[in-house]
Amino acid sequence: MAEVDLKDIIAEENVVYKKTKVLTDKPMHYCPGCGHSTLHRIIAEVIEEMGIQDKTIGIAPVGCAVFMYDYIDVDSQEAAHGRAPALATAIKRLLPDRYVFTYQGDGDLAAIGTAETIHACNRGENITMFFVNNGIYGMTGGQMAPTTLEGMRTSTTPYGRDYHLMGHPIKITDLVAQLPGTYYVTRQAVHTANYVRKTKKAVRKAFEYQARGKGVSFVEVVSNCNSGWKMPPVQAVKWLDENMLPYYPLGDIKVPQD
């Protein structure tokens, strides 16, 4: 049998997949099965494929999202909790030729940052917003978030969320879709290969619409938080399918009309 040279095996024409250069070499610290790492990879791949690495600026606030700058190799700025849309507004207005995006969790974007989210969307700031919704405060101890489902147990709702006491889960993405300043609004997921492909298309569209100066592109990604949900990864994905997706259905909510 002829000896095979390793260089021939990994030649460019034989490569099926390789890590994008826009991801750093730092090992990710996220819990096994967490959607953050997958979404990081998707965003990095799109940035590389569009050739905009040197023109992209990411803003991440407090929470698990804050580690984005450790893994995606673009210019980054940390924002105070909930204030990423405000900071993105300033950066985009000062540097209109840059691709500016926020990367936020539900406790940030839909709780302490609700005002910044709503007003940035209503103004139609020409930015892209990525929103990871796992229905819980993941980093700070698994407390109830505005997106926590009715009956869902958290560290602050040990008997389940009761809407009579705590209100209904907020569908912030549906809400911002009603505002005239949003151009493209979609809800996706990353826990299956098919969903990853659809999310990547949505991420690409969001950046392309920003290049066209169309206003806010808003991409929600429904994810799991197996540590916050107190479940192993496989069970957390099953719970997501059976509970999160019926309440937060996937698909485009607002699509361009021109």
Q: What do these coordinates show?
A:
Helix content is 39%, strand content 16%. By secondary structure, it is α/β, with parallel strands linked by helices. It has a single domain (30-137, 145-254), classed as Thiamin diphosphate (ThDP)-binding fold, Pyr/PP domains (Rossmann fold), CATH 3.40.50. The chain has a 7-stranded mixed beta sheet, sandwiched between helices. Helix 2 crosses helix 9 (193-211). The longest helix has 19 residues, at 193-211. It is globular. The N and C termini lie far apart (60 Å). The mean pLDDT is 93.
Largest sheet: 7 strands, mixed
- According to CATH, the fold-level topology is Rossmann fold
Round the mean pLDDT to the nearest integer and report it. 93
- Euclidean distance between termini CA atoms: 60 Å
Helix and strand topology:
Elements: H1 6-9, H2 35-50, E1 56-60, H3 68-71, E2 75-78, H4 84-94, E3 99-105, H5 106-112, H6 114-123, E4 128-133, H7 163-166, H8 172-177, E5 182-189, H9 193-211, E6 216-222, H10 226-229, H11 233-247, E7 251-254
Parallel strand pairs: 1-2, 1-3, 3-4, 4-6, 5-6
Antiparallel strand pairs: 5-7
Short structural description:
The chain has 258 residues and is an alpha/beta fold.
What descriptors fit this protein?
258 residues, alpha/beta, Rossmann fold, seven-stranded mixed beta sheet, 11 helices, 7 strands, 39% helix, globular
